[in-house]
Amino acid sequence: MTNRSRLRQSGFTLLEVLIAMIILASGVMLLAQSWSSSYNRIRKTQKNVEIAALLERKLAETDMKYRGKSIDSIPESEGDEFEGYPEYSWKLESKKFEMPDLTSILIGRDGGVDQMMMQLMKQFSEHLSNSIKEVKITVTYKVKEKEFEYSATLLFVDYDKQLPLPSIPGGG
Predict the structure, then answer these.
(1) Average pLDDT over residues 135-139
(2) How far apart, in whole angstroms, are the C-alpha atoms of residue 139 and residue 61?
(3) Cβ 140 vs Cβ 90: under 8 Å
(4) Residue 135 pairs with which residues in a beta bridge?
(5) Dihedral angle of Cα 107, 112, 114, 117, to the nearest 10 degrees
(6) 169, 167, 90, 157: which is closest to 130 by C-alpha?
(7) DSSP characters for the chain?
(8) Whole-structure pTM value
(9) pLDDT tens-digit series, residues 76-131
(10) CA separation for the pair 90, 79 (Å, rounded)
């Protein structure tokens, strides 16, 4: 064998080296993309956990502050930033609970419903609307120019309100 044939058999060609480099580079790119995607998912999950914890904290604070008190003492709206979390803010909105009209369900029954039952349902619905206050707490997360809102609702019931007694027509 000559020196020339020995050199040709012992090394790689330029084409083989280029193909190996392309395969290696594409593998490194896929690995880097996978790490980046995983990191972004972890950051998003961490933000969701923070938001849920802040929302739960504010719900518990509000519940402790207004539980057992008159529903008239709950403010219509308030809010502020969370201490130590400048990118988060919260707001509280309260409104009278709107009881759905249930008379249509009674009317749709076989045989219908009498006037006294409808009057009783109307009084009961009004009582529930006056005895329950709906409080919605919203946590807002601001990142760059986008805002993301997450909210939860509490219902406060004033158990001290008297249930109105139905008036009986023609009664004395």
Answers:
(1) 93
(2) 14
(3) yes
(4) 94, 154
(5) -50
(6) 157
(7) --HHHHHHHHS--HHHHHHHHHHHHHHHHHHHHHHHHHHHHHHHHHHHHHHHHHHHHHHHHHHHHHTTS-GGGS-SEEEEEETTEEEEEEEEEEEE------HHHHHTSTT---HHHHHHHHHHHHHHHHHEEEEEEEEEEEETTEEEEEEEEEEEE-TTSPPPPPPPTT--
(8) 0.66
(9) 888 888 888 888 889 999 998 888 877 777 776 666 667 777 788 888 888 888 88
(10) 5
Q: Is the dihedral of CA 47, 53, 58, 63 positive or negative?
A: positive
What region, left, alpha or beta, does residue 98 occupy, with left being phi > 0 and alpha being psi -120 to 50 degrees? beta
Neighbours of 106 (CB within 10 A): 14
Q: Token match 């039952």: residue? A: 117
Question: Could you tell me which residues come within 8 angstroms of residue 38 by beta carbon, excluding any fewer than 6 positions away?
Answer: none
